[in-house]
Design goal:
Elements (H helix, E strand, L loop, with lengths): L5 H15 L3 H9 L3 H6 L5 H19 L14 H18 L4 H22 L7 H9 L17 H22 L7 H25 L5 H33 L1 H14 L1
Helix pairs in contact: 1-10, 1-11, 2-9, 2-10, 4-6, 4-9, 5-6, 5-10, 6-7, 6-10, 7-8, 8-9, 9-10, 10-11
Length: 264
C-alpha cells in the first residue's frame, strides 16, 4: 500500500496537530500572567539542579511501577478523565505546600501520567508486555519540549525520535533480555537521562507556576491538569503515528507526516 486511506490520513492529521503544536508553556504563561522562560530564571539558586535530579528519580520510579499495572485484556477507550482527576489531586497537595513539595509530588504525578500514557498506548494497539512499548511510553516525556543547546535541532517529533533512537534500541535489547530487574543498568540510565533532559524543561515550567504563593492548592491542581493534558496529547499523537507505522511502514508515514507538518 503506497498511501494512507481516508480514515488513517485524518488520524495522522490529528497526530500532526497534537505533536507539532505543544502548548504547555503557553498555558503556564497565561496562568502566571508572564513569560514562563523569564520566571524560570528567577527560581532560587540550586533549584534547577534539584529539579533535574528529581526528574530522573521520578522517571525511574515511574518505569518500575506504572506500565506493568495496565491490564492488556481490557480493550476499551483509555481512561483519560480518571487519570486527569488523580493527577489534579496530587497537584493540589503540591500546590498547597509550594516548591518544596515538588520532590514528593513529582514522582507521584509522573507515575500517574505514565500510567495514562500506557493506557493510551494500549488503546492504540500497542502490546504493553513488549520492552519497546514500555520505552515508547517513556519516550512521550521527551516530546513537546526542547533544550536551549539544541539550537533549533531535534525539536520536531521525528527529530526527537531520531535523537533517542540509539539509546532506545540499546535499552530495548537490554529489557528484552534482562527485564526490569535492574533499572540502574548503564543502558537504561543513559536512555532515561536523555528523556529527563527534555522532561525537566517542562518540569521547570510546572515548578514556576506552583511556586507562586497566590495560586495555592487550586492553582497546583490546575497546573497538573494542564501537565496531564499536555502529555496525554503527546501520547495520543505518538501512538497514532506508531499504529500507522505498523500498518504502512515507517517511511511512508514519516513522509506523509512531514508533508502535513510543512503545511501547518
Amino acid at each position: 500500500m503506497n498511501h494512507l486511506n481516508s480514515v488513517d490520513h485524518q488520524d495522522l492529521g490529528r497526530a500532526v496537530e497534537l505533536l507539532e503544536n505543544p502548548s504547555f508553556a503557553a498555558k503556564v504563561t497565561n496562568l502566571i500572567g508572564g513569560p514562563v522562560e523569564k520566571a524560570i530564571t528567577m527560581l532560587p539558586e540550586g533549584v534547577s539542579d534539584k529539579l533535574a535530579m528529581t526528574t530522573q528519580k521520578a522517571l525511574t520510579k515511574a518505569m518500575d511501577l506504572a506500565v506493568s499495572s495496565i491490564d492488556e485484556r481490557y480493550r476499551g477507550e483509555s481512561a483519560d478523565g480518571t487519570h486527569r482527576f488523580l493527577t489534579s489531586v496530587s497537584g493540589a497537595v503540591g500546590g498547597a505546600f509550594g516548591l518544596l513539595a515538588l520532590t514528593v509530588e513529582l514522582p507521584i504525578s509522573t507515575t500517574i501520567m505514565l500510567r495514562s500514557i500506557a493506557d493510551i498506548a494500549r488503546s492504540e494497539g500497542e502490546p504493553l508486555s513488549e520492552a519497546e512499548t514500555k520505552l515508547a511510553c517513556l519516550e512521550v516525556f521527551a516530546l513537546g519540549g526542547t533544550k536551549e543547546e539544541d539550537d533549533g535541532v531535534d525539536t520536531g517529533y521525528f527529530a526527537v525520535r531520531a535523537a533517542l533512537a540509539g539509546a532506545m534500541t540499546e535499552a530495548a535489547k537490554y529489557l528484552a533480555e534482562q527485564g526490569l530487574a535492574s533499572t540502574g543498568a548503564p543502558v537504561l540510565v543513559r536512555f532515561l537521562s536523555k528523556i529527563a533532559t527534555r522532561y525537566s524543561i517542562q518540569v521547570s515550567e510546572k515548578a514556576v507556576a506552583q511556586a507562586i504563593p497566590l495560586l495555592g492548592a487550586a492553582g497546583g491542581a490546575t497546573v497538573n491538569l494542564l501537565f496531564m493534558d499536555h502529555f496525554q496529547n503527546m501520547a495520543r499523537g505518538h501512538f497514532i503515528v506508531r499504529r500507522l507505522e505498523r500498518a504502512y511502514g515507517k517511511e511512508l508515514v514519516r513522509d506523509a507526516y512531514q508533508q502535513m507538518a510543512s503545511r501547518n
